[in-house]
UniProtKB/TrEMBL annotation:
Domain Pyruvate carboxyltransferase: 13-275
PROSITE patterns, sorted: AIPM_HOMOCIT_SYNTH_1, PYR_CT
SUPFAM superfamilies, A to Z: 2-isopropylmalate synthase LeuA, allosteric (dimerisation) domain (SSF110921), Aldolase (SSF51569)
GO BP field: L-leucine biosynthetic process
NCBIfam families, alphabetized: leuA_bact, PRK00915.1-3
Species per Swiss-Prot/TrEMBL record: Cohnella faecalis
Name this protein carries in UniProt: 2-isopropylmalate synthase
Stated family: Belongs to the alpha-IPM synthase/homocitrate synthase family. LeuA type 1 subfamily.
InterPro entries, per database record: 2-IPM_HCS-like, 2-isopropylmalate_synth_dimer, AIPM/Hcit_synth_CS, Aldolase_TIM, LeuA/HCS_post-cat, LeuA_allosteric_dom_sf, LeuA_bact_synth, PYR_CT
Keywords: Acyltransferase, Amino-acid biosynthesis, Branched-chain amino acid biosynthesis, Leucine biosynthesis, Manganese, Metal-binding, Transferase
GO MF annotation list: 2-isopropylmalate synthase activity; metal ion binding
Group of enzyme by EC: transferase
């Protein structure tokens, strides 16, 4: 394994993805084999260098998934994960035998607290066990990665002994993990320099790191390791993993891409696939992404402050250091609330094809502020209602006027919706059925909106507690490869979802009307 540099002399940092192994170890994050295969394909599309698809010894389903991923994804290196135990190694070797490129990733504890209370073995016993298993694995796989688990809490004297013995036994990659997320950047980075200096053969191997996020320092520690010569970083999508998770793939990659000049490094990640990969992992694991999560969080590129909104509308670089669209993130930078100013309101209304006079904007602004004091966020459906009141007109292509759902424990859910079209002013009723009330309503609305609109995603968030809690719905639809979002808030979460879906479809209809989207067939699916 060699370290590549490009024409700009930037060192290439290899991205080792452990979403499907360490990420899946997060409580509640387990996946079915077929789901792991889908995510593995997306990771390959994203451009990761190495995929660690699981722990082969853990179950027959896990073994089969690793085997299929190894056979199918020939362009990506596959890492077989194993304890320093023969049965683990045999399973990892067998599961990855069809990979075009593979490595064996072996680990054993290195901190004294782990040796005393988990392994119950002496330092010499652990080193002998590790050497034997590296030699055993070397009989089947040339590339051996060794990880001294909990290295950041181990004594350096023993850590150096262990790494030296691993290199002598045939390890080609040394991964130094901060397993408990205990290290600080200023101490963790220099550790790699000391290892090279104090370990025989330490300058002949590739160095990697695997940092956990218990103190929120996983990315910082990984970057510190890069500054001290590490050329591989182990990450997971959305930072999923044990406890507080791992070093986040998207945060590390974008830190390198945004500040790469100060590091002199780059990765091979195709950043345009970051957002879709993040969403896929979130949906598959049923792990919601925190609103303030860097890069992929809902608020990462959204702004409510009037000062920020005004600056963004004049020049994006005033308040954004990255381009969200370059990562596949929909451009939804303006969130309307009580801190928003006239400029942002006028801009958002214009995106719906509505041009306001100064008098109408003043009237709308007053109505907006009154509503914003009651409702924290002014969603698109509410904004369009306010615009209609200010202009004494109907501005939404489709208006949801009524929703009815019949649910029962022993029958399909049946729904009917009434939708008014601004094109002819007619109100039509649509009916549908589904296994759940939301599915039934989606089937109803789909009949009324432009054909070719695909329902992609629904997020539901509680905005308060207690019996009177209201829910916020965010619906994403896709039309001609472009994503459109709609939001709505209501005490009835079913109604909130329905309004958000109609709002998203209104965005599509307006994009078609204003020439910003291509009409696939008919503009109406009635």
């Amino acid at each position: 394994m060699t370290t590549a540099t490009n024409a700009n002399n930037n060192k290439r940092i290899r991205i080792f993805d452990t979403t499907l192994r360490d990420g899946e170890q997060a409580p509640g994050a387990s996946m079915k084999p077929e789901q792991k295969i889908i995510i593995a394909r997306q990771l390959a599309r994203l451009g990761v260098d190495t995929i660690e698809p699981g722990f082969a010894i853990s179950s027959p389903g896990e073994f089969a998934a690793i085997q299929q991923i190894s056979r199918e994804l020939q362009e990506v290196e596959i890492a077989g994960f194993a304890r320093c135990v023969r049965a683990d190694i045999d399973a990892a070797v067998a599961a990855t035998q069809d990979a075009a490129r593979r490595r064996l990733h072996l680990f054993i504890s290195s901190s004294q607290i782990h040796l005393d209370f988990q392994l119950r073995k002496s330092q010499d016993e652990v080193i002998n066990m590790m050497k034997d298993m590296i030699s055993y694995g070397k009989q089947s796989v040339d590339e051996i990665e060794f990880s001294p688990m909990d290295a950041s809490r181990a004594s350096e004297e023993f850590l150096f002994r262990m790494i030296e013995a691993a290199i002598e036994a045939g390890a080609t990659i040394i991964n130094v993990p901060d397993t408990m997320g205990y290290a600080l950047p200023e101490e963790f980075g220099p550790l790699f320099t000391r290892i090279r200096k104090n370990v025989r053969g330490g300058d002949k191997v590739v160095y990697s790191t695997h940092c956990h996020n218990d103190l929120g320092l996983a990315v910082a520690n990984s970057l510190a390791a890069i500054r001290h010569g590490v050329t591989q970083v182990e990450v997971s999508v959305n930072g999923v993993g044990e406890r507080a998770g791992n070093c986040s793939l998207e945060e590390l990659v974008m830190a390198i891409e945004t500040r790469g000049g100060s590091f002199g490094v780059e990765t091979g990640i195709r950043s345009e696939h970051i957002y879709e990969t993040s969403r896929l992992v979130s949906r598959t694991m049923h792990f919601p992404i925190a609103f303030n999560k860097p890069i992929v969080g809902r608020n990462a590129f959204q702004h409510e402050s009037g000062i920020h909104q005004d600056g963004l509308l004049k020049n994006r670089n005033t308040y954004e250091i990255m381009d969200p669209e370059a990562m596949g993130i929909p451009r939804n930078m303006i969130i309307l609330g009580k801190h928003s100013g006239r400029h942002a309101i006028k801009h958002r209304v214009s995106e719906f094809g509505v041009q306001l006079t100064d008098t109408e904007l003043d009237d709308l602004y007053g109505r907006f502020k009154e509503k914003a004091d009651v409702q924290k966020i002014i969603t698109d459906d509410v904004l369009m209602q306010l615009v209609g009141e200010s202009t004494d007109s109907v501005v939404e292509p489709y208006s949801l006027t009524d929703v009815q759902v019949l649910a029962g424990s022993h029958r399909a859910r049946i729904a009917s919706v009434s939708i008014r079209s601004s094109e002819d002013g007619e109100e039509r009723i649509f009916t549908g059925a589904g296994e759940g009330p939301l599915e039934a309503i989606i089937h109803c609305i789909r009949q009324a909106v432009p054909s070719g609109v695909e329902f992609e995603d629904l997020e539901l968030h509680s905005l308060s507690t207690g019996e009177g809690a209201s829910g916020e719905a965010v619906v994403t639809v896709v039309y001609e490869g472009q994503r459109y979002r709609g939001t709505a808030i209501h005490n009835d979460i079913i109604l909130a979802a329905a309004r958000a879906y109609v709002s998203a479809c209104n965005s599509v209809a307006i994009a078609i009307r204003t020439g910003k989207a291509v009409v696939r067939e008919e503009a109406s699916g009635q």
